[in-house]
Amino acid sequence: MLLKKYYDASVSPLMGELEGAVTIMSPATVANVVCGFDVLGFAINNPNDELTLSISNKVGVEIINEDDFNLPTKAEDNVCGAALLALLGETPEIKGFTLISKKHIKPGSGIGSSAASAAGAVFAANELLNKRFTKQDLVRFAMNGEKVASGVKHADNIAPAIYGGVTLIRSIHPIDIIKVNAPELHVTVVHPQIEVRTADARQILKQNVLLKDAIKQWGNIAGLVAGFIHHDYDLIGRSLEDVIIEPVRSILIPGFDEVKTKCKEAGALGGGISGSGPSIFMLSRNAATASIVENVMKEVYNKIGVDFQTHVTTINQEGCKVVNSEK
Length: 327
What we know:
Layout: E1 18-31, E2 40-56, E3 60-65, H1 79-88, E4 96-102, H2 113-128, H3 135-150, H4 158-163, E5 166-172, E6 175-180, E7 186-192, H5 198-203, H6 211-230, H7 233-239, H8 246-249, H9 256-265, E8 270-273, E9 280-284, H10 287-304, E10 308-314, E11 321-326
Parallel strand pairs: 3-4
Antiparallel strand pairs: 1-2, 1-11, 2-4, 2-5, 5-6, 7-9, 7-10, 8-9
């Protein structure tokens, strides 16, 4: 339900400045999908952020955080705010928005926290504007939020959050996104309770790549996409290999090699670092295997003494969705 205290004139002075409201859920996402750095991603069904957006008579974007993450409320410094400001630049008849954000996706977790915020904000705005903008437009706006978070405009979390399912970002200049018809897959995620900032994880990457490694990576990306399209689980498993990014970033994640090895031994198709980490994801053909994989992850992190959270879920085919609307 909408948080009525913000819409009741007897309770809050915000009433009278708002013209309708919409509440949406915005999903966590897994970017890169091992070999597809910045070009592949998929949405998952759990966890989700909750965003309530209203059109305001005030100029700009007012942000109200209803969580304990102490995120910036200045629009230019907030991923939601930056995305909404970009959208406002193309809607001159709208002065501004009021956003109430309740995050359940922990910032710095590696499962698309900033993308859920940015994508969810512009998705909600588009609902209030009677779906004036295309999904490509929404990706374009939301990437401004990703630039605030990491210093780089990238869409591998944004696209699946908006489109749902597995997405291939063929290009961002111009934006060209393809939704890939993947089979039903079960996803197990472990989030070691450490933080790896996306900006920092990008800085440690090599700037030059050997041609032989690039060729191997291209083959894996093509194989993974083909495996998704043809529902070829063996091909998906063989293609979940990264010879460029993972060897560098995995050193930031305690227990990574052991988790990956033991989860595959337990029946997972494969997996790796989710986004820039520290979360690790594994894909499985069925729920039973996904649960076994979760237990393996728990055993590893209990043994090494690192706090963690786990999620056992499936690929979210819908992306952002409306849960309540008062337009």
